[in-house]
Structure formats: C-alpha cells, structure tokens
Amino acid sequence: MGARGEQVIRMGDQEIRILFTNRALAEAEQTIGKSIVSVAQALVAGSVGIGDIAQLLRVGMQEARRDAGERPIGVQMDKAYKVLDEVGFTAVATAVMEAVSAVLGYGVNQEEDTSPNGKTAQSQN
Question: Which domain holds residue 16?
Fold first, then answer.
C-alpha cells in the first residue's frame, strides 16, 4: 500500500476518516508553515497548538475524501473545528499523530537482502 496512515475518529454515530500520505503531509506543511517533524515534536513536548492539529485534521479528512473519490473533495476548517469541539483535542491529536507517524515511519522496518548480482536490495515487510 505504501506510505499511508489512516485513522477513524468517532463523532456520535458518524465515523470521520482521516488519511495521510506524503502528498498530504507536504500539503499540511505548506498550510501550517512548519515541518511535519517539528509539529510531531511539539506534540510530544506538549506544546503543539490547537490550530496546527485542526489544520492537520482538515488535510487528513480531505485526503480521505480524495482517496475515496468523494466529491466535493474540499473540507472547510469549520468542519475540522466541529470535530475538535465534539470529540476533544486529545482524541483528535492522538488519531492525527498516529496516522502521521505511520507515514513518517514507513520503511523503517526493512530488512536488507543481498541480490544475486551482489548489490544490496531493500524488501518491505
């Protein structure tokens, strides 16, 4: 499947699907104006802002819609803030960062195999 991180946030009887890919993370970085690694570090340090999480949530929701072929693709910030208000910051931040971490950590658990031509090749587990 590649570098993908997916989570489902439950909001009442609704399921809010979020998806992150490298493309979505690059879009989030442009929107937030910070690297995704610095946002992740801020979350671990307890200093991430609500606005950063809301922007990441919006991008993740939008990418999930794009992936599902839903129209219209665009997700407004109002929807992201509604989810934050209903579910709470901690639940949303946890889901977002778990999905983001799956993309950032993709390929870390690779084993090296030696191919017949003597070059080292990477295989994904």
Answer: 5-124
> 62-67: long-range contacts at Cβ-Cβ below 8 A with a sequence spacing of 24 or more?
62/24, 63/18, 63/19, 63/20, 63/21, 63/23, 63/24, 63/27, 64/6, 64/17, 64/18, 64/19, 67/19
The number of folded domains in the chain is 1
Residue 113: per-residue pLDDT: 45
Q: What is the pLDDT of residue 111?
A: 52
pTM of the model: 0.82
The residues near 6 (Cβ < 8 Å, ≥ 6 apart) are: 17, 18, 19, 20, 64, 99, 102
d(CA 59, CA 25): 8
